């Protein structure tokens, strides 16, 4: 480490209290090359007390990177040095160590900014010159109250949901701010409350702290980004072409576009929505990659969109040249204000306030069917309490079992958290969450976790509730399920949910592309998942084969009455066939199945094979979690794994497609079945009264003039968009509500139905 003079800062010999360290990571110089091309993809980590308190962005293919990122770190012991480590990022592999250095905080002068140059060293090779890191640092005294005020729970959802309670991240201007709150001070605060006050006051304290976190969960607007195309991108493959895709990042929100194979001028036509948390905007990081099967993807270029420079409530067409590469991206960016979500206590209820309730009902009345099509409805979720939760923590001499539960409420990409109720297996949250509904076919997910201060939160249970299955104004006890939603786990959660929506808007939105979720996890090879998808596809194929055998048996006159009826029907249909009879036949099938359901003769059977496959998959996931830190043989055979994952996903898509068609006619989701009846009725009338040639002519004119009328229109298939809302058999199984244990009888409370 480079020490730079002596300090005149007078640190107390005892507990020095809180200090704030502002560190600006400027740049690196002459860093060591760790890649075969003679370059590196460096990023920097700051560690304090063995914990990572800051991680910079990755600068690709550069030995003299410029970061200009700022970290605001709250520390309780300035005699503990700041550990700085530099790594080379390697996609899919273990990152290479470049070098490290220590910053002695006692050598800093209080309230004075100092420029620091640190020489990187490797303890195993102390004589090697690994480059230098340039910093600007400012150490100033801080207040413990400020540390408490800045503490927040932020969470990142990945393949295993991880919660970190020590960091606060936001972006201002061109700087990243990350605040580190030592767990020691959080612990002291909680211990003092629990030892000097009763349990009720302790819970009040946790509620008060949670109110301070509330603002960090709510967003102030929505950024809609439409990725149109790329122009003259850099060729990365031997054939002079590339297989480009794009990654977007705004804070913790991430999206990934589809891959367009073998082109330097890709056309994407994809739309992504981000939540905007800062009034001054933020910066969207955009990187372009070339997909390479079996090896690391090639970096093509990067660009950034500074949202603070864009005016709101209008669409901006941007042509963004790629840095560190060639070509440009064409984007459409729209910033809109939003009051889509709120968090409040039970005493503040929008639907119980007569004036607010009338405004909400008016907003989604039939008269407003063509106003703001994307605003489909209103959702209010009351998270009341949970009972008999799983004990995740064992402490004390008597092995007292407890949990520190909190609740995460999710609707698509909207995620909100309750406060934590400490040391309680029967927590009461009494919180109200409201969301704007963009798709009535969305699924509300409520997950309960156990807070762990020093590691990722423990999963306690989860429920998934399709919005169309909700009964308004009913307080209901939901049995918590496991991670895969295939079976029960310990505990129940009491919710009261209200949904108000405009049916016309919901129907129109059904025929539009479905909202994508943030990038959560990479596809991985699973033996049970591959087998499950194969069996599902086999069921679809066997249903088709059975139908073919049935038709063949009519030809063979295995049953003379049936064959005679089929022969007469064949003669009648062929002699009188018109195109409108196709949707009419589908209408009759829907009507027949509806009659069976209403008459109590429904012959739909629960798919136990799918349930068994899901349970086996869950067991495999548990084994994978235990071995997640070990890199085995399969990780080294990346190419084979990718092929198997592709086959696995194709099987899933084929099986899901067949199951969705079946579930449309089986009235699995009545709203969609009724929508299909309306659409088929319209098609039948159109085909009956309008000659086919006119229909084909209108269709062709629409197709040929679509890009002329709207050059940036996003291509979509209304039929496939409709089917994407119909649940597959696996999803039906996951959304199936479990019966509650008789020992937990829910108290149901009926209210006026606001819909």
From TrEMBL:
**What are the C2 domain coordinates in residue numbering?**
1-118, 203-320, 354-480
Provide the topology term for how it sits in the membrane.
Multi-pass membrane protein
Provide the protein's localization: Cytoplasmic vesicle, Secretory vesicle, Synaptic vesicle membrane; Endoplasmic reticulum membrane; Recycling endosome
Q: What is its main location?
A: membrane
- SMART domains with a match to the protein in the record: C2 (SM00239)
Tell me if Repeat is a UniProt keyword of this record: yes
InterPro entries (UniProt xref): C2_dom (IPR000008), C2_domain_sf (IPR035892), MCTP_C (IPR013583)
In terms of CDD domains, this protein maps to: C2A_MCTP_PRT, C2B_MCTP_PRT, C2C_MCTP_PRT
Presence of keyword Amino-acid biosynthesis: no
Q: What is this protein called?
A: Multiple C2 and transmembrane domain-containing protein 1
Q: Taxonomy-wise, where does this protein's organism fall, top ranks first?
A: Eukaryota, Metazoa, Chordata, Craniata, Vertebrata
């Amino acid at each position: 480490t480079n020490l730079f003079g002596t300090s005149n800062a007078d640190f107390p010999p005892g507990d020095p209290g809180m200090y704030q360290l502002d560190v600006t990571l400027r740049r690196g110089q002459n860093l060591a090359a760790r890649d075969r091309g003679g370059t590196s993809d460096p990023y920097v980590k700051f560690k304090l007390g063995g914990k990572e308190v800051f991680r910079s962005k990755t600068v690709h293919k550069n030995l003299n990177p410029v970061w200009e990122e700022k970290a605001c770190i709250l520390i309780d012991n300035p005699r503990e040095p700041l550990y700085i480590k530099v790594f080379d990022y390697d996609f899919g592999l273990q990152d290479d160590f470049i070098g490290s250095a220590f910053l002695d905080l006692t050598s800093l002068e209080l309230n004075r900014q100092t420029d620091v140059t640190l020489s990187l060293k490797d303890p195993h090779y102390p004589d090697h010159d690994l480059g230098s890191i340039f910093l600007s640092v400012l150490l100033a005294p801080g207040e413990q109250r400020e540390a408490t005020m800045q503490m927040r729970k932020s969470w990142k959802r990945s393949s295993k949901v991880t919660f970190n309670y020590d960091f606060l991240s936001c972006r201002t201007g061109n700087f990243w701010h990350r605040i580190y709150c030592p767990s020691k001070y959080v612990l002291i605060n909680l211990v003092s409350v629990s030892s000097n006050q009763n349990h009720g006051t302790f819970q009040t304290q946790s509620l008060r702290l949670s109110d301070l976190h509330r603002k960090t969960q709510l967003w102030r607007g929505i950024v809609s980004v439409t990725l149109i195309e790329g122009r003259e991108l850099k060729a990365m493959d031997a054939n002079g072409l590339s297989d480009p895709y794009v990654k977007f990042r705004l804070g913790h929100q991430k999206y990934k576009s589809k891959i367009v194979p073998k082109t330097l001028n890709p056309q994407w036509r994809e739309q992504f929505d981000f939540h905007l948390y800062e009034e001054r905007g933020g910066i969207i990081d955009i990187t372009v990659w070339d997909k390479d099967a079996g090896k690391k993807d090639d970096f093509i270029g990067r660009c950034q969109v500074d949202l603070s420079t864009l005016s709101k409530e209008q669409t901006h067409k941007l042509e963004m040249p790629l840095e560190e590469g060639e070509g440009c991206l064409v984007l459409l960016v729209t910033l809109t204000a939003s009051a889509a979500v709120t968090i409040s206590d039970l005493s503040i209820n929008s639907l119980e306030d007569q004036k607010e309730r009338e405004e909400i009902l008016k907003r989604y009345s039939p008269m407003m069917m063509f106003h703001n099509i994307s605003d489909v409805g209103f959702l209010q979720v009351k998270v009341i309490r949970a009972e008999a939760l799983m004990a995740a923590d064992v402490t004390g001499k008597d092995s007292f079992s407890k949990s520190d539960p909190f609740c995460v409420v999710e609707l698509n990409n909207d995620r909100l958290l309750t406060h934590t109720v400490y040391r309680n297996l029967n927590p009461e949250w009494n919180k109200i969450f409201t969301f704007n509904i963009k798709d009535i076919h969305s699924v509300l997910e409520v997950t309960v976790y156990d807070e762990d201060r020093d590691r990722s939160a423990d999963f306690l249970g989860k429920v998934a509730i399709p919005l169309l299955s909700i009964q308004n104004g009913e307080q209901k006890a939901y049995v918590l399920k496991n991670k895969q939603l295939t079976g029960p786990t310990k505990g129940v959660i009491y919710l009261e949910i209200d949904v108000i929506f405009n049916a016309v808007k919901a129907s129109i939105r059904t025929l539009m592309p479905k909202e994508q979720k943030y990038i959560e996890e990479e596809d991985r090879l699973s033996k049970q998942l591959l087998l499950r998808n194969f069996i599902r596809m086999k069921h679809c194929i066997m249903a088709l084969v059975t139908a073919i055998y049935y038709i063949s048996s009519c030809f063979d006159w295995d049953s003379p009455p049936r064959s005679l009826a089929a022969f007469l029907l064949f003669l009648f249909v062929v002699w009188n066939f018109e195109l409108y009879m196709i949707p009419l036949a589908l209408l009759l099938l829907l009507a027949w199945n509806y009659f069976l359901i209403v008459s109590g003769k429904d012959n739909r059977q629960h798919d136990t094979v799918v349930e068994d496959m899901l349970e086996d998959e869950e067991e495999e996931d548990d084994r994978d979690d235990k071995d997640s830190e070990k890199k085995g043989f399969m990780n080294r055979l990346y190419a084979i794994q990718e092929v198997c994952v592709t086959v696995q996903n194709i099987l899933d898509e084929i099986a899901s497609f067949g199951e969705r068609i079946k579930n449309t006619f089986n009235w699995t989701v009545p709203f969609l079945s009724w929508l299909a009846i309306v659409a088929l009725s319209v098609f039948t009338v159109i085909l009956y009264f309008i000659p086919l040639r006119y229909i084909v002519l209108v269709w062709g004119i629409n197709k040929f003039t679509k890009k002329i009328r709207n050059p940036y229109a996003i291509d979509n298939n209304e039929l496939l968009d409709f089917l994407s809302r119909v649940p597959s058999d696996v999803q039906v199984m996951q959304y199936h509500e479990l019966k509650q244990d008789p020992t937990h009888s829910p108290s149901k409370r009926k209210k006026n139905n606001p819909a």
